[in-house]
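Holo model, phosphoenolpyruvate. Inputs:
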Amino acid sequence: MIKKPIVAANWKMYKTPQEGVSFVSEICNLLLDKEKPTIIFCPSFTSLFYMNENLSDSGIELGSQNVYFEPEGAFTGETSVGMLKACGVRYVIIGHSERRHIFNENNTSLNKKLHVVLDNGLVPIFCIGETFDDRNARYTKMVLKEQLTKGLDGVKGQLIDRMVIAYEPVWAIGTGVNAEPKQVEDTHLQINGLLAELYATELVKQIPILYGGSVKPENAKELIEVEGVDGFLIGGASLKLELFSKIIEIVKNNYKG
Ligand code: PEP
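Output:
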């Protein structure tokens, strides 16, 4: 089965609802009736409702950058999966390195989030990746193994095909320095191998594995041509219409599946 490539925009803490709405309406005009990868916008919570109203019928998907694992209650500042669904969200980024490193999210709470997202019919974009020190110390595989085994603990095989993994080396996020294609190829292969230790090979083949970390139009072609890369999770370059639409075009024309 040929996978459809994915281009996901992580807008982090940028763009007001008005800015988000005008960005997506311009993208929709540019891509109207064109065959395109799966495009997912992940704005901040405050924009989800408005963007959903403007995305209907466009074929473009909406994702959130986080979720809380409880259904409701006295959890000031948190957002439940039911609230996200009510705003038309289909994808949820879980375990982004900024959540892990700035907000101290750990494998145990991320595992709870993965469960709640999958149990409620949404699609997690589960982020994993090593730091610069991990890579230099040759700990990359060990770190990824721990993130995958603890993060996916208890997730049943029948749910795993509704899952997206994003490999995002922490040292490449927002730095302007992307991982080299060979590093990406080797690491995606390792991730596939680690997933195959947990699930049947036939299931693992269906899981899209994205690369994230300083993707831009200049490096998108060589990165999407890497075996095992099924698309991108993009921060900085997803905030600019010209850059983001160029990357979409590159993915569309060069993904081999
Ligand atoms: C990200 O935020 O997930 C990311 C990959 O950011 P950037 O593209 O800016 O490196």
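The first helix runs from residue 17 to 31. The domain at 6-254 is CATH 3.20.20.70 (TIM Barrel).
Archived with the compound record.
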